[in-house]
Amino acid sequence: MKIGVLALQGDFIEHIRMLEGLDVQGAEVRLPDDMEGLDGLIIPGGESTTIGKLAASYHLIDPIRRLAATKPIWGTCAGAIFLAKTIQVRQALLGLMDITVKPNAFGRQVDSFEINLDVPALKILGNGQSYPFHAIFIRAPLIVSVNGDVEVLTTLPDGRIVAARQRNLLVTSFHPELTGDDRFHRYFLGLGR
Amino acid sequence: MEQQIGTNVVKRGLAQMFKGGVIMDVVTPEHALIAEEAGACAVMALERVPADIRAHGGVARMSDPDIILKIMEAVSIPVMAKCRIGHFVEAQILEAIGVDYIDESEVLTPADEEYHVNKHLFKVPFVCGCRNLGEALRRIGEGAAMIRTKGEAGTGDVVEAVRHARAVLGEIRRLTTMADEELMSYAKEIGAPYDLVKETKYLGSLPVVNFAAGGIATPADAALMMQLGVDGVFVGSGIFKSGDPARRAKAIVEATTHFRDPHILAEVSRNLGESMVGRSAASLPEEELLSVRGW
């Protein structure tokens, strides 16, 4: 199995290390040729405007849209913004998932936070144990609303949506790649099987 | 677990989001918009770029908060600002106005000749400059969540950034081959906290993100630093002291992403217009060197 990680900017190496820990090959994607033979794609955290501009300049938008027709794609933080159909600012988008995202929804960096969240969909991956997922939010976006067949995977205690799935597409406002917990990575790999 | 803010994880985490990116010095909201449009992953809000700080002389201090706030309003990307070494009140002011990162910077005139800011006391993360591994680990010990080379700011000469990156990365490579019983003496020799020396050995890298800064002026300079092994680059005077800042800024962003692809580097290096004039770092008299500030 070979999973691409969009390596234009951001914490792509952290995702590749998580994949390697699961004995899955992680391939850095910077150009359309790097998309050959992928079984899925992760769009990492980073600066969403930077990633969007570089993806557009180097002609990656259409190849990613084509991949999305058959393979799983996961966006963490900036990647979630990039996957959304609607965002509340103007920037390059893949427009693949029926969600509306508000970038940097919690304030500035001093408002970045960590919190434990219950994610029922991960229960099956916890060796029968249900335990919270430690979620790290860094200048994080919020999923303001979901449409169509989008399934909400978890919310903050006040009900605001921070992870969702639509068929083979997955978004998280937070960064599982910055933790030692690989359940979200395994959940994502499961979307391709 | 209750929601927690200002933790080491979120402070270091924002720097992880900067990786593979370019952080650009800007002095006006217009500059900041040019930087954002070019694909900068953050901007450093300043009253003067380092080349002008050199030319202006006198005491260089934290920028007017009004300038920083106007830049924060203009762009959606993170905004950094500089405080003087050891000037913890400037840092308190920058935290109060909500900057996303503070650079405790040798480019400004140091406020304390013995001590740096105790960065653990702040919710906002700090980046600090270094010339070698000992200095990097001392700053991390004080709470820095990100490290950069000092280079020699405002010169447009990359040689000092190369020297400092090679020093830090080379020392880490040697550290990884040391036996555990050698670590205490090594920690003493380089003046670094033992626990951080040990952690660095086992990680094979600094425990925080490590950028290059000081003298980077071209796409090739940025790619050179990336190939040497840093996580991203700061560009100070190199962009807005050049003939065509928008074009050069975009080229440096693309060179930082595609740093191992000489064909793309050649393409983005074409027709960039005048680069900043620059001054050779070796020609600077000792009293004009900025990189020797900090302890």
3D structure, described in words:
The complex is a heterodimer of chains A (193) and B (295). Chain A is an alpha/beta fold and 193 residues long. Chain A has one domain (2-191): Class I glutamine amidotransferase (GATase) domain (Rossmann fold, 3-Layer(aba) Sandwich). Chain A contains 5 helices and 12 strands. Chain A has helices at 12-21, 48-57, 61-68, 78-83, 183-190; strands spanning 2-6, 25-29, 41-43, 73-76, 84-87, 97-102, 113-117, 133-137, 142-146, 151-155, 161-166, 169-172. In chain A, strand 10 (151-155) and strand 11 form a beta hairpin. The longest helix of chain A has 10 residues, at 12-21. Chain A starts with a strand and ends with a helix. An 8-stranded parallel beta sheet of chain B has the order 8-7-6-5-4-3-2-9, sandwiched between helices. In chain B, strand 6 (126-130), helix 6 (133-141) and strand 7 form a beta-alpha-beta unit. Helix content of chain B is 43%, strand content 13%. In chain B, helix 2 (29-38) packs parallel to helix 12 (245-257). Chain B is globular and about 55 Å long. The N and C termini of chain B lie far apart (38 Å). Chain B has 13 helices and 9 strands. With 295 residues, chain B is an alpha/beta fold. The mean pLDDT of chain B is 96. Chain B has helices at residues 8-18, 29-38, 50-56, 65-74, 88-97, 133-141, 159-175, 183-190, 194-203, 219-228, 237-240, 245-257, 262-268, and strands at residues 4-5, 22-26, 42-45, 79-84, 101-105, 126-130, 146-149, 209-211, 233-235. Chain A binds chain B through residues 7-14, 30-31, 45-47, 49-50, 53-54, 57, 77-78, 89, 103-104, 107-116, 132, 134, 136-139, 175, 178, and chain B through 1-7, 9-10, 13-14, 16-21, 36-37, 39-42, 76-78, 95, 98-101, 123-125, 253-254, 256-258, 261.
